[in-house]
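Exam revision sheet. Question 4 asks you to relate a sequence to its structure. Input first:
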Amino acid sequence: MGNRQSHVTAAASLSLCTLYLLYTKIYCSYCLLKTKELHSDRQPSFSYLLIRYLSRCLSGSAGSCTKETAALEFTVDGCRLDTLVLRRFCSVAGYGWDYPDSEYRDLPLCFPETLFFKLLLMLLTDKNFRLSPAGLVRVRQSIRTLQPIDELKKGLFWMRATVLVYRDVSAGVEVDIALSATSRNQSLVWESVLTLLSRNMTQTDTTSVLLNKHEDEPLEPKQVDLTRPTFPMMPSSDFSPWRVFTALCGLNSLITPRLWMLSVCLAEIEKHRGVKSVTAPASVIAQFTEDSQRLKGKVQVRFWNSSQTGSCQVTQKVCFNLTNQGRNKILMEGHVLTNVSD
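Answer key, structure tokens:
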């Protein structure tokens, strides 16, 4: 009789715990996402976003667009910069764990993007997002800073993610997503346009860019050899199921191979060309190739200066590219522009 009563009590306790988790993690998250404007202290759980993600992946097909829907935008206010997250990013993205404590150096240009992961998941799993979130891969990216990113450390800030446009291309469908971070003074600090590709599964062509000399490239550009870190938790693509799952478990999901490539290029430019080469106001444009999915082992970062003169100011242009060591194919190329005094 006593054993039976204990079993009933245990079953009742388990049921209550299950109902509590379903209410707090699932139902409350569902209610929160009825609005597109959220507060940093009241965001949906990764558990609910994982369920939405898997549901969208199963119901949609890669490389095809659903019918046109309403405009899609999410905003999160009251955000604070987590120093621990910043240190973790710096330690794996080419800057070193002590980078934030260095004097006269702004926060890494690529770092703010890591703060948008949950916000991007909300957007990509929304019913009004017209592509399947599975396998989305970045093919292009632009970053622009209007003020030092360090402004985000000084108080609360706002983050916004907006779908700009969908494009049919030979490889599938591309989507442009705008990300922006606004300071406590309501002034824009950092913005980026991320172009993601949903590849048509019947498309077998790959993009390869041979390493050719640019017109303004010197005979011997600065070259740095690096080794890609072998993180067991580094996901293969930006929004793979593995990355969403590792985020749910609280494991390392801050950086993906393509974000790592861009970050280490900018880090090496700053180390060898000085802080002014990436100081705000600055803009970065980068393009990735299909071969970047094969990133492994040692890589080579190459960069060179190319000054451009405008009507009333001088713009310093630093071009860069990244290749697998021993191969004649570019995995990523781009440039960074900054204004310099006359």
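Marking note for examiners. The chain has seven helices and twelve strands.
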